[in-house]
Queue: 3 jobs
Job 1
Amino acid sequence: MKAVLDVGQFISATIQPRGHPAQILMAWRAGKFELLTSLSILADLRRVLAYPHIRKRHRWSDEEIELFVDSLALAATLTPGQLQVNAVEDDPSDNKVLACALEGAADYIVASDEHLTKLKAYAGIPIVPPRRFLEIISEAQK
């Protein structure tokens, strides 16, 4: 099973280590699904993690931010990042998540971002909230 996480999932995982997004990252590290991402998603993640109001919550140094993002780049499956998608007009930065999902032939997109969740699916790829994705992972293990 392959999934793409929107940037908010990574941010939430750094802020709430016991929350659903953190549990999703633990499941990925345990080999329960393949994480797809792209250099543009990782660049966005690096930028958002450095926002002062986010930094206050996770309390990471620049080096810790770099280590986290670099570890994702090394361990996740990187898609080429060449596909351009224009499906989210209200927040064009969300299009990179959809493009990554298409390029990597994802089974799921995990998102809490309203611009993505209101689509419900894109090109046949379901867009699910983190709690539902955890249920899907659990069901797949049975």
Job 2
Amino acid sequence: MIQDRRRWALLAVSVFCCIGAGPAPGRVIARLDLSKPFHLADGASLTAIQGPEVTDAIGDPAPGYILVCIKPSARSPCAPQPIDPHDSNYLEIAEIVYPRGRLAAPLLHLQMASAYAGNGSQGRAAVMLAYRPADHRFEPIFKQLGGGNMNQETRYIRSGPLRGDMIVADATSNAPFAYWVTVDRLTPNYRYKQVLRYRSATHYNDGNPLAVIDSEMPNILRRLGVWRHGQPLPLPKSGCAHPRLVKSELWCS
């Protein structure tokens, strides 16, 4: 696996050094036009390119590493990688989001996952990028690296009182095994700032079929002052029309 990583890293370096403005060769798995959303010149784009197949930590074949080429114009060189390619075998999200509505500046939202390792573990990475017109570049303003075998999640909130927030549920390292839940909020100058961090009521492997962020949503909203007991329960993003509270944790009826 180390040899495969070195070979792909050397390929990436040689390509970026030699062709300057263009992305690395490989299979294009995603492409976004950035010109109109970010008011940039024609040719501004995000292109995700997947390299040749590699071997994962347990010796099985895995998808190749993903390079992301972000260009503010057709002639610009690719910006520095927003996520380490060695953490990027699967592209899960590549999108333009509007945390403050269509009349305000958008953000680039990327989420990737690594190849699988032992015990089903998998690295996950999420990043938000804002365009800085004065510097003519995209800047990472939020980044989260974590695992994926204990129901961890990083979620962009698309609607409601937390619209535009990034919520992370990350497993704790000691008993009782629960989650650190954090909420990061977009500031007026387009940077993310943590506004909440607490240890969850939800425990690992407690039998709740809901995602941790869904089961913790009453606690998140209450701690942020936008929900209180007696009001209608927040609905999970899918599959649970009639939730109920069990010791402050949301469950499906």
Job 3
Amino acid sequence: MSRKKRVWYPGSVFHVMSRGIRRNAIYIDITDYVMFFECLKRTMSCYEFNIYALCLMTNHFHLAIGTADVPLAKIMQKLLHSYSMEFNRKYQYSGHLFESRYTACLIENVRYFLEVSRYIHLNPVKAMIVKDPASYEYSSYGLFVHEKPKNVMISDLLSDIVDTSRILSYFQENSKEQYRMFVEEGTSHIAHEMQIQKEMNENDLWLP
């Protein structure tokens, strides 16, 4: 995990990314995305934690995750092991699915929390997969702006997994529309994006 100088404590919130080994895809078709969401949901039934934002790309994923009494390392070990086992069993693969350990950055203030959520939700736009972030099915963004994925199963899983209330609480009247404006506003936020990319050891080569 990156930024190891940051000590975990109950109530910590992290930006977490994990990617496929050698840039390989970790999701091949829609059933793999569903399988990951189901693994995440089962992990939540074992340990107490919150997902505040997420986006699954072809060869990596991003989570904004808030811990309780269980350290992040234990949560991630269970999630990544569970999904890797199911993925390898499904495709009759062997060996590592993910590249080394996940990367995590402690979120220490509200402004950075919001910047991370925007970064996560704009990932498929930056990868030029979609123009409208709400149209990307494997992201939590639609939950924030009242646009559900076309796939009912994915919509139901995301609703069960993602807690939108904390992020939306930082916006006043008409919070969903205010959050949409924050994410999709035309003003540049390249400085914040570059900071997050540096901390997560991510660059455009990892997209999509």
